[in-house]
C-alpha cells in the first residue's frame, strides 16, 4: 500500500471518529453488600512517582518509568484480573473499573513507547487501541471500550465518569493523582469536573464565542443533550457570571480535542 493511501486512511479515521454508544453488558451488573475493599496501593505508588502537575495539566513521565515499576504495574494489573468484581459493593466496583481502565492505558503507552499519540496504536484501520482485547477478568476478555461504554457508563449513569477515565491525551480530563477508592470517588469526580470545566481544554469563552471539549459533543447524550451539557458546565464553573451566561447560551459552539500524548520529561 502506498504512503499516500495510508495517509488518506489515517486522516479518514481521525476525522470520522465516533464515540461508542452506552450499551449495557449485563453480566457485570451484579453487586454485593460486601464490605471488602480492593488494594490499589501499587497503582497509587506509580501515580506518586510518575504523575506531575503542570498548571492545569497532570502529565506522565513515561520515559522515566523503571523496569521495576513496569513490573509493579503488571503485577497490579494481574491482581485486578484475578478478582471477580461482582463480589464487591457497587462503590468498590466503580473504583475497580476506573483504576483498571487508567492503569491499562498507561501500560499500553509504556509497551509502545515512544509514541506521539495513543491514536497511533491499534490495528492499521482502527482509530486507536480501544477495541483491542487487553485483559481477561472472570474469563471474559475486555477492551477499554468494554470497560467505559458497556460497564461504567450504563451501570452508573454518571456523566462525570468522562472525567475519571483517562485516554493518555492532552485533551482528556486529567489522570487523577489519587487512585479511586470507594471512599474518595465522589470527591474525585467533583474535583475532576471542576478542574476540567475551569480549564481552557474543557471550556473556553472568548469574545462571546464558546469552545468546548469534543467530549461534550461525542457524549452529549450522557449530559442530557446540548442544553444539559451547558447546565452541567454552569454547575461546576467557578465564575458565577460566566456560569449564568453558559446556562442560557444560544450561540454557536465549536469543539476541540488534543490527541497529543500527556507526557512530560520533567
From TrEMBL:
Residues 1-18 form the signal peptide. Residues 86-197 form the DUF547 domain. Keywords: Signal. It comes from the Bacteria. Pfam families: DUF547 (PF04784). PANTHER family: ELECTRON CARRIER/ PROTEIN DISULFIDE OXIDOREDUCTASE, ELECTRON CARRIER_ PROTEIN DISULFIDE OXIDOREDUCTASE. This is DUF547 domain-containing protein. It comes from Vibrio ezurae NBRC 102218.
Amino acid at each position: 500500500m502506498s504512503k499516500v493511501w495510508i495517509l488518506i486512511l489515517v486522516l479518514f479515521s481521525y476525522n470520522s471518529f465516533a464515540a461508542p454508544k452506552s450499551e449495557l453488558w449485563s453480566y457485570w451488573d451484579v453487586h454485593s453488600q460486601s464490605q471488602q475493599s480492593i488494594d490499589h496501593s501499587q497503582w497509587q505508588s506509580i501515580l506518586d512517582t510518575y504523575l506531575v502537575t503542570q498548571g492545569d495539566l497532570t502529565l506522565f513521565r513515561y520515559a522515566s518509568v523503571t523496569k521495576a515499576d513496569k513490573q509493579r504495574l503488571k503485577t497490579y494489573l494481574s491482581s485486578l484480573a484475578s478478582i471477580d468484581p461482582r463480589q464487591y459493593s457497587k462503590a468498590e466496583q466503580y473504583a475497580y473499573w476506573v483504576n483498571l481502565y487508567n492503569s491499562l492505558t498507561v501500560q499500553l503507552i509504556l509497551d509502545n513507547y515512544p509514541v506521539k499519540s495513543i491514536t497511533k496504536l491499534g490495528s492499521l484501520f482502527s482509530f486507536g487501541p480501544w477495541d483491542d482485547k487487553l485483559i481477561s477478568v472472570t474469563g471474559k476478555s475486555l477492551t477499554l471500550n468494554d470497560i467505559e461504554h458497556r460497564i461504567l457508563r450504563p451501570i452508573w449513569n454518571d456523566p462525570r465518569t468522562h472525567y475519571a477515565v483517562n485516554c493518555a491525551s492532552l485533551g482528556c480530563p486529567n489522570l487523577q493523582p489519587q487512585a479511586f477508592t470507594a471512599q474518595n470517588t465522589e470527591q474525585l469526580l467533583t474535583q475532576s469536573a471542576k478542574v476540567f470545566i475551569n480549564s481552557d481544554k474543557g471550556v473556553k469563552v472568548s469574545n462571546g464565542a464558546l469552545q468546548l471539549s469534543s467530549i461534550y459533543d461525542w457524549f452529549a447524550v450522557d449530559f442530557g443533550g446540548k442544553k444539559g451539557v451547558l447546565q452541567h458546565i454552569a454547575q461546576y464553573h467557578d465564575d458565577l457570571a460566566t456560569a449564568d451566561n453558559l446556562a442560557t447560551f444560544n450561540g454557536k459552539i465549536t469543539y476541540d480535542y488534543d490527541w497529543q500524548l500527556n507526557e512530560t520529561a520533567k
